[in-house]
Specification:
Elements: H1 2-34, E1 40-44, H2 51-59, H3 63-67, E2 71-75, H4 82-89, E3 97-102, H5 103-113, E4 122-131, E5 133-138, H6 146-155, E6 161-164, H7 170-182, E7 187-190, H8 194-202, E8 208-212, H9 213-221, E9 225-230, E10 257-264, H10 269-283, H11 286-294, H12 304-325
Parallel strand pairs: 1-2, 1-3, 6-7, 6-8
Antiparallel strand pairs: 3-10, 4-10, 5-8, 5-9
Length: 327
């Protein structure tokens, strides 16, 4: 008799658990169907005028049409992107507060320094695009080509000032790779994002920098900055006369800097899927394509599963590279 009661109890408990799970899934589906009922915020972890800021502003023009609500940009720079990342990691997982994710604070910092948040701490919504850096100098610099810059740095140890978009940002990571390969020592100057590094370069406060094309191309076209080399695998379509880094003899493990949409870890999957679909449709509009092309870039969309796989692979790569760079 006891065994029969025990089996009945187990069956009853199992039914209760099943009902609870179905109820939970049903509430998530209902929540996703109603979502969003108010504007959605995307927090940019860097300062104004950086490539993340420019890229998302180019993207969200048709947000109301495809998401049903506008997307609002919020700027929260600091800590190389870690401050905004921590804020999103602790935000309510309801889909209304998202992060403009980036290689620097969401792959390099957690992999190399153990700070900020990576793929175990945030939910991947979608990848928007990938940027490759452009090495630049100002018109009054004592060199005009990438080779001349390296030669000048060798002749003036520790004097060349190189601006980066935050401590252990991808720009610093890549420049440290150049230092090792070239056998030079320079003065690295960290800024709160590429926008601030651009201002420093335009003002002549630093000799050179590595910036994303969207923020630097207008200044190049205006003749205010001189491009030295491009990190991409082939020459940039808008800068056909500028050699790639590989052409200059430097073969870095170039991965590019992705920009994507990240959410708090426990955000319901139906909401993530709805956001991913809406952002995909935004990248496909002529309005957004034209806006991103004017910045010298294009979209490289990946959905939640593909993006998370890509992100985790990159994170592990930087973890291994970080061991080399910190020794």
């Amino acid at each position: 008799m006891k065994k029969r009661v025990s089996k009945k109890r187990l069956t009853y408990v199992g039914l209760l658990m099943m009902v609870g799970m179905l109820s939970f899934l049903g509430s998530q589906t209902l929540q996703a169907q109603e979502f969003p009922t108010k504007p959605v915020s995307v927090v940019i972890p860097f300062g104004p005028g950086g490539s993340s800021d420019l890229t998302f502003r180019a993207l969200i023009g048709t947000a109301t049409e495809h998401l049903g609500q506008p997307v609002i940009i919020q700027l929260k720079p600091g800590g190389g992107g870690a401050i905004a990342t921590e804020m999103i990691a602790q935000a309510k997982p309801d889909g209304y507060t998202l992060l403009s994710g980036h290689t620097s604070p969401n792959s390099i910092l957690p992999a190399v320094e153990g700070r900020s948040r990576g793929p175990d701490d945030l939910a991947a919504v979608c990848r928007i695009n990938i940027d490759y850096g452009l090495f630049l100098t100002h018109e009054n610099a004592p060199f005009k080509t990438f080779k001349e810059m390296i030669a000048w740095a060798k002749a003036h140890p520790g004097e060349l000032s190189f601006g980066v978009a935050g401590t252990w940002s991808i720009t610093e990571f890549d420049w440290r790779g150049i230092e090792r390969l070239a056998g030079i020592k320079t003065r690295i100057v960290p800024y709160d994002g590429g926008g601030q590094a651009l201002i420093g370069l335009l003002g002549g406060h630093i000799h050179a920098s590595l910036l994303a094309v969207p923020q630097s191309l207008p200044q190049v076209k205006a003749g205010k900055l001189r491009p030295l080399a491009y990190e991409g695998l082939k020459r940039h379509v808008d800068l056909p006369d500028i050699p790639t880094l590989k052409e200059e003899g430097y073969n870095l493990p170039v991965l590019g800097a992705w920009k994507g949409v990240l959410a708090p870890k426990k955000t319901p999957r139906p909401i993530i899927d709805k956001l991913a679909t809406a952002f995909k449709k935004m990248t496909e509009t002529e309005q957004a394509k034209t806006a991103i092309k004017q910045l010298g870039n294009e979209f490289h969309y990946l959905g939640p599963e593909e993006f998370e796989k890509y992100w985790r692979t990159e994170y592990q790569n930087y973890k291994e590279l970080g061991k080399i760079f910190k020794n």
